[in-house]
Amino acid sequence: MENFSVMMAVCLLAGLSECQTGATQPSCNPLIYTVLKELGALGEKLAATARALEETNKRLEASEKKLSALENSAEYQGRPRIAFSATFSTDVTIGPVTVLYALVYNHVLFNTGGHYSPVTGYFTAPVQGVYYFTFTSFCWSGSSGGGLYRNGNSIVSWYGNLNSSSRSNSAILQLQVGDHVNVRLWENQKISGHPNNYSTFSGFLIFPV
Ligand SMILES: *[C@@H]1O[C@H](CO)[C@@H](O)[C@H](O)[C@H]1NC(C)=O
Ligand SMILES: *[C@@H]1O[C@H](CO)[C@@H](O)[C@H](O)[C@H]1NC(C)=O
């Protein structure tokens, strides 16, 4: 870049002196003089761009250092790992039930930390945070409806009255330590389990708060 600037300066001077000494000669061309001047300005701009690029590179390097420090930090490494997925293991139809019925997905596919209970069907939040829950409910025939409940309060639900079909829903919830979440079947409704795992309940921690 410096070499280029020097070269430009030399060119400019050469152009100038030629013009001055040969003022009376036809070789003094004002167009060449203008072009040289513009080239000089361009060189300056190029140098400025290169300096800006160097600045950007320095900032990028600093950001990368910060990122790698964050990735190695105890906070990032120590983030609790909480996730589960469960189904009904058998070919079974539950219902029509006569009360609001807490479903127990007794077959665990995954349950890191063990915060979902395949005995009660409840997930219990071990840390305060934002969680994602989803369920899919299959039913062979008749009316199927129910919902996702936090501490006994309905959050999202499903309903349908077609044979052999699935419905699903999901929610992102902020939970306090000890809050519990489960899926319940409404009164007079049905749901079916199957070894193909048609009906599922899953959840995981997105981030602690
Ligand atoms: C659903 O299946 C039942 C038999 O299990 C049948 O009587 C009923 O007509 C079916 N309903 C629909 C909507 O296909
Ligand atoms: C259902 O889950 C069980 C247990 O993980 C698995 O062995 C089986 O292959 C699953 N069935 C289907 C159809 O995915």
Could you explain the architecture of this structure?
The strands form 3 sheets. A 5-stranded antiparallel beta sheet has the order 4-1-12-6-9, with no helix packed on it. The protein has helices spanning 2-21, 30-72, 74-77, and strands spanning 83-87, 92-94, 101-102, 107-112, 123-124, 129-139, 144-150, 153-160, 165-175, 180-185, 191-193, 200-208. It is built from 3 helices and 12 strands, in the order αααββββββββββββ. The protein has 2 domains: 2-75; 83-208, Sandwich (Jelly Rolls). The two termini are 51 Å apart. The chain is α+β, with helices and mostly antiparallel strands. It is 32% helix and 35% strand. Helix 1 (2-21) runs antiparallel to helix 2. Bound molecules: 2-acetamido-2-deoxy-beta-D-glucopyranose (2 copies). The site of one 2-acetamido-2-deoxy-beta-D-glucopyranose has 3 residues, from loops.
**How confident is the prediction overall: mean pLDDT?**
87
What sort of overall outline do the alpha carbons produce when their principal axes are compared?
elongated
The main sheet orders its strands as: 4-1-12-6-9
Biggest pleated sheet: 5 strands, antiparallel
CATH class of the largest domain: Mainly Beta
Low-pLDDT stretches are 8-12
Number of domains: 2
Bound molecules: 2-acetamido-2-deoxy-beta-D-glucopyranose
Whole-number radius of gyration? 36 Å
Strand % is: 25-35%
Structural class: alpha+beta
InterPro entries: C1q_dom, Collagen/C1q_domain, Tumour_necrosis_fac-like_dom
Protein name: C1q domain-containing protein
Keywords: Coiled coil, Extracellular matrix, Secreted, Signal
Subcellular location: Secreted, Extracellular space, Extracellular matrix
